[in-house]
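Reading a protein record of the kind used here takes little practice once its layout is understood. An example of such a record is reproduced below.
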Amino acid sequence: MSELSKETIVSEMMETNEKNPVGHALKMLTDFSVETKRGTVSGKAGDYIVKRNNGTVSVLKSSMFFRKYRVLR
């Protein structure tokens, strides 16, 4: 199993300052792969796994993660 960094709660970036949690995110410290509804997705160290409250799982590069999400805690 890969090493994980601290789990965070995230909200989507919006034009307003709303802070509605949409899921959890993990910043991965090593290369990894994860099962999603679309099949197995691979990622590199530094990428994020995001699990939304509706159960959807996605992998995002760090630069894209910070454009799309805001860390709440």
Notes: Residues 22-67 form one domain.
